[in-house]
Amino acid sequence: MRKDPLQNLKVVAVVGPTASGKSELAVELARVFNGVVISADSRQIYREMDVGTTKISREEMQGVPHYMLSIVEPNQEFSVSAYQKSVMNLLNRIAHKNLKAKSPILPLIVGGTGLYVSAIVDGYEFSNVKPDAGLRAKLNASPLGQLVQQLKKFDPDTTVDLKNKRRVIRALEIFVAGGKPPTRTRPSFSVLKIGLGNNRQKNSRQIRERICTMNIDALVKETKRLLRRRYKLSLPALSALGYRDVKDFIDKKITKRQLQDKLVRLHSQYAKRQLTWFKRDPQINWVTNINEAEKLVSQFLFD
For residue range 67-113, what is the model confidence (pLDDT) as tens digits? Predict the structure, then answer.
């Protein structure tokens, strides 16, 4: 029996809250260790949403190949199971290339969407229950708090983001159809998890700096372009942080300063939820700089 090439593959996950510097760290690691970056961001998968999702630019990539960015239209549905299937296919291709490569490629799973990261490095197995538009509409009419209570009756220890109504509804949809919550299995490849940004105070400063230096004019143009394409603000894609507030700014309901303050608050709240997710994982090695990360990767690859 032929050995699964994935058993020889080594994968590094770089995780943490928004504005922590994950993308920059990943690019540096990729340049040192012949790596490629595979985004694990549930909003950066969408096209035409670069400014609002703070998507890495071509210049910032520094020649490092990046995958799972700008792959679907904002009005297309893209589930975590679809993400998992795409990335696992990519990892299989990399593993096969590495069998003959003098310098193996190091895949870096990089992002702040905890479920997307876990779908790959924790071997989650997801239910194949199909979407039920009627049930979703019915559930969506109920308050989030009520939906959370229903979900906890099915699964008291749920790991679903209970502040994300869309994910709560999907979890309920699975249970109502007789499905089961995601289960973890051990992936066939080796994994090193590196975390960046577990200092809340420092991360808060970085978020404020990011928003204060954000090109608001470009964000406004991007939002107007999305609206001209008749993409509704109720779409899951456009629930990304800030687009609804930008629309308020366009409609002169709030000032530029008020928009910036709202963006800081939204990003800070999101970062808090991200950190809560990642802090639950004892396998994450938290670092503060590139040197610490390089040392961990060197030990992982060569020891």
Answer: 999 999 999 988 888 999 999 999 999 999 999 888 999 999 999 99
Q: How many independent structural domains does the chain possess? A: 2
- Calculate the CA 136 to chain-centre distance: 23
At residue 230, φ and ψ (nearest 5 deg) are 65, 30
- Here the CATH number for the domain that contains residue 263 is 1.10.287
> For tokens 């299937």, what's the residue?
85
127 φ, ψ (degrees, to nearest 5):
-65, 150
Rounded Cα distance, 238 and 230, in Å: 12
- Give me the domain span that covers residue 141: 127-181
SS3 content of the chain, % helix, strand, coil (to 5): 50, 10, 40
| Dist CA 81 CA 69 (whole Å) | 16
Phi-psi region of 17 (alpha: psi -120 to 50; beta: other; left: phi over 0): beta
Instruction: Determine the Cα angle at 136 with ends 235 and 41, to 5°.
Output: 45
